[in-house]
Each structure stands twice: as structure tokens, then as C-alpha cells.
Amino acid sequence: MTQTSAVDALVTLVQLERRAREAQSPEALGFVMVNETLALVPYRQAAFWSDSGLGQVAAVSGLPQVDPNAPYLQWLGRLCRALHQAHTATTPLDAASAPAGQAADWADWLPAHALWLPLTDEAGLREGGLLLARDTPFNEHERAVLAELVHAYAHALAAFRPRRSTAQRFKAALRLNRVRRRILLALLGVCLFPVRLTVLAPAEVVPRDPFLVRAPLDGVVERFFVQPSQAVAAGAPLFSLDTVTLQARRALAQRAYDTAQEEYRQSAQLAVTDDEGRVKLAQSRGELEQKALELEYTTEQLDRVQVKADRAGVAVFDDVNDWQGKAVVVGEKVLLLADPAKVELLAQMPVAEQIPLQPGTVIALYPSADPTRAYEARIVSVAYSAGETDEGVLAYRVRARFEAGAPPRLGLRGTARLPGSWVPFAYYALRRPFAVARQWLGW
């Protein structure tokens, strides 16, 4: 193709696109497509098939109006409908490649060669097709130019299409082609893929069956003899209370006892010669016994101010400075004595992440200090009601016993992986959003 002919073809293409945009009706546009396209590419017959309504031949070259009852147009309509369903791109045709049932009559109605040009708008919706036929095949350059032209025809034709309602647009979006069906099946397979419902919860290695050391009486902690995590032997002193108040009370009790004893001695002497002394003797004896009991009780309290370990273990508490100088009441928890070989896992499952857990289920602990290691434990119990953690979060306490092997260090913290039942991936991914939506919407 020479440079002059190329320029002429380009000018003709631009003029046809302008004519298509200026068409005032679908009929005028169809006339341009089947008749004026001849200025760009030579052909003998042309037909415009519209997909609107039931689908029909809307324009034919050389005819001002179409008669749907004409045998030629009926055959041409069946051919175009078959081509519209089978081809979505520009397709060259002849009698041998014609759709089934149309090849026998091809020679009666069309030349030897034809070209099917689908009219597809920018949204991918096919408006119909343009069929061009002649005696010689269409070359590659002609097919490329015509493909560019029918793109403009489809765009102009879409302008006459009535605006679709929301229901129609939704229906068109749901129209499945092969690619959409494959994508939908793949997404459905991913959504239904079974996964284990799991929850990650903060956890700590705590003592199992520890010995609780409490304050023996009201007072102020004077001194601690052990440090946190220190191993102590049975009978070793743990802490002591301030004795100033108790010593003053014991001194008063001792003085009262001595006074009562002297009064009893004098009453005993008078009782030998005086009847009234015998009556006073019994009263003095009662007072002496009472003072003796008070002195004994005060002495016992002084003996209890120093608390000793009833059994060997490791002292479990936070800090010595938290207790020294602190006032305590009788029965208040001060520390724990734990056996390092007897530990268990305590996991705090948040209420918002609650899943059904059964005793005997194996869970895993991932220590924060050593993320490359993991410890397995078997659930022993799950708390019936939730309690508040140190961070102010409501959580269920899950206790688990470690499997055979060296137990982890007492006090080790990390994250516990709590496995639940098998659920579809869609439920696993949308579980939290659904829960939040129910809280906001009140389902």
C-alpha cells in the first residue's frame, strides 16, 4: 500500500467514524454500516444483525427496508445468530467453516468469502455483528482496519441503548462466561476449603499444686529473707513481721500476769485465817489463769512473726520492695512455694475469641524469648466463667499439662495456639467481622 492510499484510507476511516457518531437513530447507523463502509473496504453484500430484543437482521446493503419474512433474511438471521453465539472476535468465513445447517445454502445467498465482525462496546457487551461478504478473502490489513471501524460503530450503537435498570445491570454482571465460571469455582473451592479454627492467646508457665504462704497475723512486713525465684529448703525463713507492737503487748501481758500472781499469793495467805480471804482466793485464781492465757497467746504471736518454709521449693513472688514495709492482714497471700519440676500452662483465651475447647486437646506454647521452640501441652480444664486479666481483658483460663519431656522454665511467657474444630475457610475469615456486625446491628 502506497503512502497516498494509506492516507486516503485513514481519512475514510475518520469520516466513517464521524458519520457513525452523527447518526440520529439506530436505523440511520445501520444504513451507514452496511452501505458506507464500502468506501473503506470493498465488498458485495453486507448485513447488520442486532442483538436487541429477539435478535434480527436490522439492515442489509442495497435495501432501504428489510422484510423479515423474506427467505434471504430468514436464512441470514439464522446464520448471524449462530455466528453471534459462536464467535466473539473478528472471524473470516466461507461455506466450509459456516455453522452447521448453514453451509448447504451458502452458495445460494452469499459470495464465497465473508467476514464476521462482532460489535462489542467498552463494557464488553455485544450489541450484535456486521457481516461482510465478497468473492475474494479479506486480507490482514483489511481485517485490522475493519476491527477499528466496528469498534466505533459499537460505541455509537451503545448510545442508542436505553439505560439499563439496576436489576438489569446486576443480571448482566452475573452473566457467567467461561473465565468467570472458573474464577467463581476457584473462589468457591477456597471458601469451602477446611481449616482448623484456632485462637492465639497469651500464656504463662505457672506452678502446679503450689504451697500458698500467707500472713500469719496482722502487721507490717519488716524483712524478706529470700529473693524471687530463689530455691529454699524446708524450714528456711521466708519473711518476718515487725515485732515492736507485739513486744509492747507482751510486756504489758507479762506485767499483768505478775500482778495477778502477787494478788493470788496474798489471797492464799489470807485464806488460811479469814473466810473472806477464801472467797477472794477463787477470784484471784481466775484472774491469774486469764492473764496467763493472754501472756501465752502474745508469746505465740511473737514466735509466729518469722514465717518459715513448710516444704522445699522455689519462692514465687514479684519483688522484695513491693512487700517490705507493707501492712498485711491475717490470711493475706504473700508468696508461693513451687516445685520447678511440677509446672503447667495457663492460657488466657479472650472472650471475643472464644471457641469450644475440650479437655485432652493438645495445644502448643510458643515462648516469646525463644520463638524457634514450641512446647506441647494437653488441656486439663477450661474455666466456666471469664475473669479479668492483668491487662484488663476478660478471658477464660485454660489450664494444660505439658507432655513428657523436660518442662519449660517456671514463669516463661509466650503465645498459646488453641485449636478448635474444622470449619470452612469462609467461616474462619469472616467470623470476626460477622461478630462485630452482630454487635453493631443487634442481630
From TrEMBL:
Keyword Coiled coil among record annotations: yes
Keyword Cytoplasm: no
Location in or out of the cell: Cell envelope
Gene3D superfamilies: 2.40.50.100, Helix hairpin bin (1.10.287.470)
UniProt cross-references to InterPro entries, sorted A to Z: UPF0194_transport (IPR050465)
Keywords: Coiled coil, Membrane, Transmembrane, Transmembrane helix
Transmembrane segments: 183-203
PANTHER family associated with the record: BLL5650 PROTEIN (PTHR32347:SF23), EFFLUX SYSTEM COMPONENT YKNX-RELATED (PTHR32347)
Record-given protein name: HlyD family efflux transporter periplasmic adaptor subunit
Species of origin: Chitiniphilus purpureus
Lineage: Bacteria, Pseudomonadati, Pseudomonadota, Betaproteobacteria, Neisseriales
